[in-house]
Design brief:
heterodimer, A: alpha/beta, Rossmann fold, six-stranded mixed β-sheet, four-stranded antiparallel β-sheet, globular, B: alpha/beta, ten-stranded mixed β-sheet, 8 helices, 20 strands
């Protein structure tokens, strides 16, 4: 069974401890939401799972599909079936969406079969158009340089398009709702919902509850000060919407040294 | 008196210390007949008068010739079949669709020419220089030395004095050529001085695309000295694409200038991937109102290569426009120099000049020098320039890795993307593919 198991994860960046013993298990077919105020380490978790070199794991383990992936490079983790939708996707000047995705797809195929010639272009085009229709994207989009001059909504849609194309088994969506107006939010959420199912596990990282009106999680976690402090069902998200994060801060605030 | 015996010590090992500035060429090697007799004679005098450039000369400050083994190079002997490495077949592949408008293969001592008979009927001349000297002596005499003068430099004079191998292209008034013309200069031999001379005249209102490639085998030391003289007459259009892929032991020097007339347009594209050392002077002279010129270049170096491009955009008349974009990527311990100057003459008002040079340094031992320059003597102009030297950013790299793209593929994609704006300026899929293939080979190479 495909599982992502995070055990006692401690992470620091430039010597500063951000994650302080985080535990979480995500199975294929599940939708988890991780919520929390800004600066509690949500994005650090996302980057660490993907293997960003600036984040140093000082303690703990990350298991994916029965393998400890801590020693694996980001590209290996991706090909294993892990995906991160970035909060702030960077521009890749001069590389079109289509070229980028075809390269990524062929890298997957070659990893499992070195003799692989790569996906035939007509087949790739057909597949890409289908996925783009799903996300209500104009076909011209495929010819644009990836994230270069994209609006906030276009960037997020491009992230979901990549997810749809690469078909990961566990996907982490880092603040996918940030910077989206209500229409873009709906389109992106519909895209995600079309992809969720028994073959995909999703971790939605978000500050606001509004995304969860569209993407319904079975599990809701509250993250605070580098660790998960509360876990529950959808009701937990509603509690946050009603009461905000103040009660979390009061309950879990580290005592300020005198 | 007793004669002292001469003791000659010969050694088969190559001298480590090169002699500087001494070429073995002699005046007997100059072809003193035909329409270029006087031209060559005069150039020979200039060649002897001009010293070999040193790094004390401002334009040569970053390109050191002290290792140039001047005395090892020889010229092809007339009438003697040269030995050279075979021409790779793919060099002669058509660039657009199934055929060329015309193609010329230049070898050190012979050439092969083909031209669409329909173009010949229209008066188009596209032939090798030796043939043109016989068939069109007046044209050759008129064009040689009109745009580039032999006294401009040691290597300009060298190329002019021994000018025999080359291309003459003339497109008559109002003639528009759809299919590209293509020439390939295959430098061969061992320690051979390859001399080339291109004479291009696109007459009033005419238009053409011309692709010229120069190449030679790897690991074979040779010299190339080249001249390119381009005249784009009033209302004419020229797209000129040059791809330099000399072998990695070639010392390559060229002086190129285009003169663009009233309401005429030149789209000039350079690709440089080859040679051990290159010093290229390219000058765009906008000589009449409404003249426009675009210079787009890419270079990609690796190993020990040293490529130095010296560009000038000369606005010599009002209402002229120039746009230069040169992009370079560097690997190994290679080095590139781009030195550009926009010059605006005192009466060249309402001109618009732009230049940009961008470098992507892929290895810590590589180095790119970028020296933009403006010299503006008019007061109502718009000139901008920019130069950057950078490395691959870690964030796009991580982004690509996170999509499962291995690091080497990601680097290739970043380099391809870096060059893409130049590729978009290249006409014809076949030419673009040629350039992309060259980039790909460099990227996966050492």
């Amino acid at each position: 069974m495909t599982e992502l198991i995070i055990k006692d994860l401690h992470v620091s960046i430039e010597g500063k401890q951000i994650l302080k013993g985080l535990n979480l298990t995500v199975r294929k077919g599940e939708v988890h939401a991780i919520m929390g105020p800004n600066g509690t380490g949500k994005s650090t978790l996302a980057y660490t799972l993907m293997g960003h070199p600036s984040y140093e794991v000082t303690q703990g383990e990350i298991w994916f599909k029965g393998e400890n992936i801590l020693e694996k490079r980001p590209d290996e983790r991706s090909r294993l079936g892990l995906f991160l939708a970035f909060q702030y996707p960077v521009a890749i000047p001069g590389v079109t969406v289509a070229n980028f995705l075809r390269t990524a797809l062929n890298a997957r195929r070659r990893a499992s079969n070195p003799e692989e010639k790569g996906i035939p272009i007509p087949e790739f085009r057909k597949m890409l158009i289908e996925k783009m229709n799903l996300l209500k994207m104009d076909s011209k989009f495929a010819g644009r340089y990836l994230n270069d001059g994209f609006s906030g909504g276009e960037k997020k849609r491009a992230e979901i398009l990549q997810m749809a194309t690469l078909q990961p088994e566990i996907a982490i969506l880092d603040e996918t709702d940030s910077g989206l107006d209500i229409d873009a939010l709906r389109i992106v959420s519909e895209g995600v919902n079309a992809l969720t199912g028994p073959n995909l596990g999703v971790v939605v990282i978000t500050h606001y509850q509004r995304l969860l009106n569209y993407i319904k999680p079975q599990f809701v976690h509250i993250m605070f000060n580098g660790t998960i402090v509360e876990s529950g069902g959808p009701a937990l998200a509603l509690k946050l919407e009603e009461h905000g994060y103040d009660w979390v801060r009061e309950k879990y605030q580290e005592p300020i040294p005198a | 008196m007793e004669e002292k015996p001469h003791i000659v010590v010969s050694s088969r090992t190559r001298r480590v210390e090169p002699t500087i500035g001494h070429f073995t060429f002699t005046p007997e090697m100059i072809r003193l007949e035909g329409p270029l007799k006087d031209y060559r004679q005069k150039a020979w005098e200039e060649f002897n008068r001009l010293p070999l450039p040193t790094t004390k000369d401002e334009t040569w400050r970053r390109t050191d010739l002290r290792l140039l083994p001047t005395d090892t190079f020889h010229l092809p002997s007339p009438g003697v079949q040269q030995e050279y490495q075979p021409v790779p077949g793919n060099l002669l592949q058509p660039l657009a669709g199934s055929q060329h408008g015309g193609q010329i293969l230049l070898l050190p001592d012979q050439s092969q020419v083909s031209l669409d008979p329909a173009l010949e009927k229209k008066g188009v001349i596209f032939t090798d220089l030796r043939t043109a000297e016989v068939q069109y002596p007046d044209l050759v005499e008129r064009l040689a030395g009109e745009i580039v003068r032999s006294q401009e430099g040691k290597f300009a004079a060298l190329a002019a004095a021994f000018s025999e191998n080359g291309v003459v292209l003339y497109v008559p008034k109002g003639v528009s050529i759809e299919q590209p013309l293509h020439s390939v200069l295959w430098g061969g031999g061992y320690n051979l001085a390859n001399i080339s001379h291109l004479l291009i005249w696109v007459d009033e209102g005419a238009s053409v695309t011309y692709v010229h490639e120069s190449a030679s085998a790897q690991q074979v030391p040779n010299l190339h000295a080249g001249l390119v003289e381009i005249k784009v007459s009033d209302g004419a259009n020229l797209r000129f694409v040059e791809l330099q892929s000399w072998g990695d032991q070639v010392w390559n020097f060229s002086h190129e200038r285009a003169q663009v007339g009233r309401d005429a347009n030149l789209d000039w594209i350079f690709g440089a991937i080859g040679s051990r050392v290159t010093k290229n002077f390219s000058s765009l002279d906008l000589v009449a109102p409404g003249a426009t010129g675009r210079m787009s270049g890419f270079y990609f170096t690796n190993g020990q290569q040293h490529l130095d491009h010296d560009t000038r955009q000369n606005h010599l008349a009002p209402h002229t426009t120039s746009d230069l974009l040169f992009k370079g990527a560097l690997k190994g311990s290679s080095r590139s120099v781009w030195q550009g100057m926009i010059y605006v003459a005192p009466d060249a008002q309402k001109t618009d000049g732009f230049q940009a040079n961008r470098n992507l340094v892929l290895s810590p031992a590589a180095r790119a020098d970028s020296i933009p320059g403006l010299e503006i003597l008019a007061n109502d102009v718009r000139c901008t320039h920019g130069a950057t030297v950078g490395k691959i950013d870690p964030e796009p790299m991580f982004y690509m890795l996170s999509r499962g793209i291995p690091a080497e593929d990601a680097e290739r994609l970043i380099v391809e993307g870096f060059f893409d704006p130049i590729m978009q300026r290249i006409p014809f899929e076949g030419v673009r593919e040629r350039f992309q293939q060259a980039i790909l080979e460099k990227t996966v190479g050492k």
